[in-house]
Amino acid sequence: MLSDKRDYEAIDKLYVWHPFTQMSDWEVSDNLVIESGNGVYLRDTQGREYIDGVSSLWCNVHGHRKKAIDEAIRKQLKKMAHSTMLGLAHVPGAELAERLVDLAPEGLHKVFYSDSGSTAVEVALKMAYQFWQQTSDRGVKRKLTTKTKFLTFGNAYHGDTLGSVSVGGIELFHKVYRPLLFDVYRVPYPEIRSDDSDYESKIMEQVEKRIIISGHELAAIVIEPLVQGAAGMRLSSPRFLRFLSRVCEKHGLLLILDEVATGFGRTGSMFACQQAGITPDFLCLAKGLTGGYLPLAATLTTDYVYKAFLGAPAEELTFFHGHTYTGNPLACAAALANLDIFVKEKTLVKLQPKIELLATGLTKFERLSHVKAVRQCGFMVGIELAQDGAKPYPAQMRMGHQVCLRARQKGLIIRPLGDVIVLMPPLSIHTQDLKKILKIVYESIREVTEN
Ligand SMILES: Cc1ncc(COP(=O)(O)O)c(C=O)c1O
Question: Which end of the chain is more exposed for a tag (fewer CB within 10 A), N or C?
Answer without folding.
Answer: N
